[in-house]
Design brief:
By secondary structure, this protein is α/β, with parallel strands linked by helices. Helix content is 40%, strand content 19%. It folds into 2 domains: 235 residues, Rossmann fold (3-Layer(aba) Sandwich), CATH 3.40.50; 289 residues, Arginase, Chain A, CATH 3.40.800.20. Helix 19 links the parallel strand 15 and strand 16. The termini are far apart.
């Protein structure tokens, strides 16, 4: 077995350009052609690891960690660069796909033994895998009856028993409960002592510092740090999206206090029913949300690794958006639900802090109840609303998203109309793109109600936004939007989405947004759903 050598790895993808305005959208629709652009998922990544070394890949979602692991494992070919290693590899990337729910635990253990090419007989290896995973007593149970974490023990332990000299691991060190996780870490440490090389992606800085010798921190495919784990900058940990989400929650008590002082009434909305959520989401996804039975990959996509108290609130989140949307539709002016804005959630999964898509749920409830005919979404979050665009790709609800051109989410779905705004745009470029996009979109969509996602993450001090807009610029954005909609007589359901700047400033921006909406709709009764 030799060391691992990585030299100049670059990986480029092509993505479709967004629909910037009504004319270009029509041209593309009738011509069937869509211009594309390139983006570098990885740019000139190089490093080397000696036998017995472990490297932690760190950075926010969309930074290129998984793409790099796929290149190293040979799953994806790089556009440039080379990877050199002689010996057996074990790749722990999305390995739940080899498991078959209809087969027994024992039969799945046999599959894993074959897949990871364990030396010896398949029957003996299956017994070793089940014993190591603590599943021997469940050998005859159907795999589908096990929790996601217990099922993943099978391929995880098979990989560790495979005799490989190089392991690639993508966020699967979170498998199982605390005791099983400790056992896995002990096994990996033992493999290191025997000369195995580990390369693993993680958002857990404690895990990285405990297992790795070195760290490679990525941001938008570029290396921002490579060196000893003890010298990794604290900012690498601070940039973890899950930590930013938890920090963003701190703004709500401050916002609610400002609203009460200003004379607003906070009304707790009832949770949505299963039937209402099923208008958008699959039954299997809802069942797994209720049981908190998510795979490590799904928790990574959500960026909520400590989600047991958050996921059950999905029904309340949807209920708040429904209440605000009904208030807007029935009054003909404004409804407000500050925590709403789950625009990254898809029918069968969550992404980016969003377990459910409350905007889509509320829109379909209004359509089902006959309260609207042509609802639309204006999404001014700094990150493209890929989940909402996917759900409404059939055209029942028109969607507009004005967002940062690069970064999260890497996997985007075209909205009815998109405005890509360059990183660091600041007030002038940002406001020009938003104002033009909103005007063109309203002319195309002609909605009878708008769901307005007016997030604070475009703010210049936001940790994840990257658009560098001032507080005054956001105020101008909000004033323009609500005056335009009110002037056209279009009711608005306002949700506020994400904010990852200091809580006091995020709360003030959110408060100013609500005040701008209330000023544009003077008959608004100042009742805010929570």
């Amino acid at each position: 077995m030799t060391g691992l050598s990585v030299s100049g790895i670059t990986k480029t993808f092509r993505v479709e350009l967004p629909r910037e305005d009504a004319l270009s959208a029509l041209v593309r629709f009738f011509s069937g052609r869509s211009p594309t652009r390139t983006f570098n998922a990885l740019e000139d990544i190089s490093f080397s690891l000696a036998p017995g070394a472990a490297l932690a890949l760190c950075g926010p979602n969309g930074s290129g960690k998984t793409t790099l692991l796929k290149v190293l494992a040979g799953i994806t070919k790089p556009c440039r660069g080379a990877v050199s290693f002689t010996g057996k590899k074990a790749c722990l990337l999305g390995f739940s796909s080899i498991l078959q729910d209809r087969l027994s635990v024992k039969e799945n253990a046999r599959l894993c033994a074959v897949f990871f090419e364990l030396p010896g007989t398949t029957a003996e290896n299956a017994e070793k895998i089940m014993s190591a995973g603590g599943l021997a007593h469940l050998r005859n149970a159907r795999a589908g009856e096990l929790s996601a974490g217990m099922k993943l023990r099978l391929p995880f332990m098979a990989a560790l028993l495979s005799g490989a000299g190089l392991f690639f691991i993508d966020e699967t060190l979170a498998v199982g409960d605390a005791s099983f996780r400790a056992k896995c870490l002990a096994e990996l440490s033992a493999l290191k002592r025997r000369g195995a090389i580990l390369v693993f992606a993680t958002h857990d800085m404690e895990l990285a510092r405990g297992l790795a010798d070195a760290a490679l921190v990525l941001d938008s495919g570029r290396r921002i740090f490579l060196g000893p784990i003890g010298e990794m900058p604290e900012a690498a940990g601070a940039a973890v999206p899950g930590a930013a989400f938890r920090s963003g929650l701190n703004r709500y008590p401050l916002l609610y206090e400002k609203l009460k002082t200003a004379g607003f009434r906070l009304a707790e909305a009832p949770p949505a029913s299963d039937e209402e959520l099923l208008l958008v989401h699959s039954r299997s996804w809802l069942d797994r949300l209720k049981a908190n039975d998510l795979t490590p990959q799904e928790e990574k996509s959500l960026a909520l690794p400590y989600s047991r108290q958050i996921l059950p609130l999905s029904w309340r989140m949807a209920g708040g958006a429904i209440a605000a949307a009904r208030a807007a539709a029935s009054s003909g002016n404004l409804g407000v639900f500050p925590p709403g804005g789950g625009h990254h959630a898809f029918p069968d999964r969550g992404e980016g802090f969003c377990p459910v898509n409350d905007i889509a749920i509320a829109a379909r409830v209004l359509l089902k109840d006959g309260l609207v005919k042509r609802p639309a979404v204006i999404d001014l979050d700094a990150h493209q609303g890929n989940g909402t665009a996917f759900i409404f790709s059939g055209g029942e609800v028109r969607t507009f998203s004005a967002h940062k051109a690069d970064g999260y989410p890497r996997s985007r779905v075209r909205s009815s109309m998109d405005a890509d705004i360059p990183a660091g745009a600041a007030d002038g470029v940002y406001l020009e793109a938003v104002k033009k996009g909103v005007k063109d979109f309203l002319e195309l969509a002609k909605p009878d109600l708008v769901f307005a996602l007016c997030s604070a993450d475009a703010y210049e001090k936001d940790a994840l936004g990257g658009l560098k807009v001032s507080m005054e610029g956001l105020g101008e954005r909000d004033g323009f939007l609500f005056k335009t909609l009110a002037g056209l007589g279009i009711p608005v359901c306002l949700v506020l989405g994400g904010a990852y700047s200091p809580p006091e400033e995020a709360a003030l921006i959110n408060f100013n947004t609500i005040m701008a909406a209330a000023a544009a709709y003077p008959s608004f009764g100042k009742t805010v759903s929570v």
